[in-house]
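Take a specimen:
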Amino acid sequence: MYEALKYDPPRIDNQRYMSQYHTAICLSFILGESNTYLRFKFRQMHQQQAICQTNNILMIARYLSKLQSYQHIEDVLEDNQSVFETDQSTKGQITVFKGYHAKLRHLQIEHNQSTKAVTSEKNNLYKDLSMKSKLIIIALIRFANDTDNETLRVKLEELQDQLARRSQIVRLAAAFVLHELCVTYTSELANYSISADFITAYKKCIDDIEIQNAKKDLILDENKKNKKKLSEMIRTIDTFLKDKLDWSIESYRELNSKMVNAYFTARKLKIVIYQHIAIRGFVVNKQNREPIANGNVSVLGTDLETKITEKGNFTFKNFPEGEFTLKIENINYETTTLTIRRYSNQYLNIKVEMQPLPISQQVE
């Protein structure tokens, strides 16, 4: 298992660990390049991660707005149920909608199954594993020293390094290898206070961690399936409202305009997160006036930054008022700075020209 991890790293679902893994891969490939290239690649990676997080936030905002809208619709219909007392068709549609909404709330609960308890149990097991691993390593090092076994010493140094890593996957793989060494040297380890029962307990700790991993994977898989069901149910409700209930409610406009207006107000999707573009920029090659694709624009003295698109555009949203200096970077162009002043509620449209580096210094 250790050899497989060494040459074929496993798929990592957790976004934070995936980001760290990609960072390590980037380092291994570009350490030989210039510092400018290194900074550019890492900044580009962080921008992509920030965009992904922003998209997730907006998606959650839309989803929560949908749920809020459905609840408001049900409240309006509940408050005006006497209006539809003799309208069996509309009453039937309202019953169908309430059934869909109830199922959606149930799916929402299922979708949000927590992995907190499993994670907590797994973390406790890793603490136990770490303690037991240290005792076994010490015993095996003593045995290697007493028998002048250089091969075993080298192997133990590797395992020590892997067991100290933050990645639980790497630590678990190292524990498997360490257990195999325990099995190989069971009789010898007895002379260094590591009994057969201790080795059995060590293996059980490894097995329990794998069980907790399987439990967590099962929960995440169920959440993923329920998320798909949730999206399908939202589409079903939206289609039902658009094709049927909206028309039925609209037919009451002359008789009860207040109720109809309240219904369609509840139907409107309100995005709880919104931003106003304050600055829009366009970056071009100073020599041929062609758009410059990709790169980074940051604001000196602040943590504000954005990326340049494939078409040479960049934007800042909710940009503060005052005087600031923009720093425009692209790996194949000289870094450019531009001082701007923005007044309250002012919209700026700026053009930036960048001088290309000599061809010999450009990166393909």
Observations:
- Strands lie at 277-285, 296-299, 305-307, 313-317, 322-330, 333-342, 348-354.
- Confidence is low (pLDDT under 50) at residues 1-42, 271-275.
- The first helix runs from residue 2 to 7.
